[in-house]
Amino acid sequence: MKTIVKISAALLLFIGCKTETNSEENKIDLTMEQATEIPKMETEREAIKTSILKLFRETDNRNWDAVKETMADSVYVNYTALGGDEGFKTPNEIIDGWRQLLPGFERTIHQAHNFAIWPVGNRATATLDAIATHYLEGRDWTVFVGYDTEYIQENNQWKLARIDLSLYNQTGDTNLPNVAIQNVKDGNIPNFLHIESSKTKVIESFFTALENRNLKNLMASLSANMVQEMPLSPENFPKTLDGIDAMRKQYSGVMDYSQRYEREYMATSDPNVILAKYNGIITTGEGKPYNNSYVGIFTLNDAGKLSNFVEYFNPKILLTSWPGLQPSHYSVHEAGAATDSGVKLEKVTFNSSGINLVGHLFFPPNFDHTKKYPTAIVTGSWTSIKEQMPDEYASVMAKDGFITFTFDFTGFGESEGQPRQVEDYNLKIADIKAAVDFLTEHPNVDTDELSGLGVCASSGYMAHATAEDKRIKKLILVAPWLHNADVARLLYDNRPGGYDGLIASAREAKEKYAETGEMEYVLAASELDPLSAMYVPHGAFDYYLNPAKGAGKKYDNRFAVSSWEPWLTFDGIGASKDIDQPVFIVHSERGAVPQGAKDFYVQLKGQKDIVWLNQYNQQQLYSEDDAVNAAMSEVVNYLKQKKQ
Prior knowledge:
By secondary structure, the protein is an alpha/beta fold. Helix 9 crosses helix 18 (625-643). It has 18 helices and 25 strands. It is globular, with a radius of gyration of 27 Å.
């Protein structure tokens, strides 16, 4: 009997899981065409980065014609995180808005950095972080933000087509924008001032001393009552160094670091206040790279020495690279289990059908090497990597006494496999079984308490693996995306080319790869490109594009076109008929294809239970603290009750 699912328009917002192809594709060695594709992509990335940097540089220079050159004819803008508006605008409309604010400051400095750029054909997405300092008459307003952007290539130039801002933090005088707006209205536009080299001499001495590892010269550049402020510092790192002794103690600890700073200076209306924009290229005493980006506000005293230094930098980079520090949470964004809970991460490699896969083992607080622990393999949505929702769920679960394991599937993230970004359910199911092989050999894994936990699309893969491998003792599905070919046709027939057209394109891409070794890709997620794997505008797939949520350097926002056929023909629902192990499902009626989960549940013949968290939608269950914690509370309670 065919399963018929009624699809509402809202459900189309959650086609956010993944695709697949023949497993033999991933065993082909890197071809000459693939080898040339890598430098080509790097060239495009550099071109896009150059365009981004030009936009911010020329904005700071108030060179509005040059800013306009970086934009497409229509750009989707979302600045609601800073009280602005959203919607499609022309470059002139965008620039007119910026001109009502930015020229009212003495200086604006946009320090853009931490880029992740993914070009596909004439489309591209890019995420980046930025420190934006706005300075006026001794006061500053500084925001630390993330940008989610998209680009269209026109006449061999990459043009901005979407810019969406997420606010991480802000500090300083938050009323300063109002003062700047009034300045513009009154025609009081501060001019850019020439900087005196005599004023930068002592700042140069400060940086040179760092680069030469000369503590004596560094201290000689400072006044006795020197104060350094670091407003964006994370916990467990100083926010203020008050006095010469505090400065000496802090900087003596970095004198064995290799340091180089690319820097530029800007004058203010106060000749003793100098603004600086700089990038640090640093190797710590442990031999670990630490490359951060900064905005500094240096104040000199009458003797020409530094008396105050306000330094803004990216705290996320500090936490992942600075000796003795670690991120507050194990995930690509802010949610998850805090490391001070005692959860520890170990990076491992294991083998799946001759391919080396990279995984994360999470150990619970007060881990005892002599004991065995209940254990879970945690997998995520389509196109996802371990650092996204898998690490999030695994780290939250680990703090409740479980060993948990996440990994990158073949061809994804840090794992090996060619071609990249191919959703092959055969491979993914085989990878899960290989993860079981790895865990059953671990001395601290209780093999009688080994569970498989699938989030979103991997629920279907995990269900099949559970049906085929009885070493998985329990199946847990969270926000499961479960479909079969009939459901897929209903969901995807409205896409360009329709269901049959997507399958035809997959077969063509597979044939091209077999002949040339060159895989065809589309963007995995986009708010502008209707050919992307996940296309619904207005933030429907915000998780995959937002650097404050799931986007970042390790995520590859590409989708192998050959994946459409195995994805559309995959039957995740049908696996339920072959599962004997206990099954527990946590889902939401506002999530992805809830009817698919219901049909799956009905066909289960063993112990089963299902909980509906209807207060959350699909992507909230990927990342938001309340949603993740609510789901994991249900899962942990279920597993602990079953153990009893």
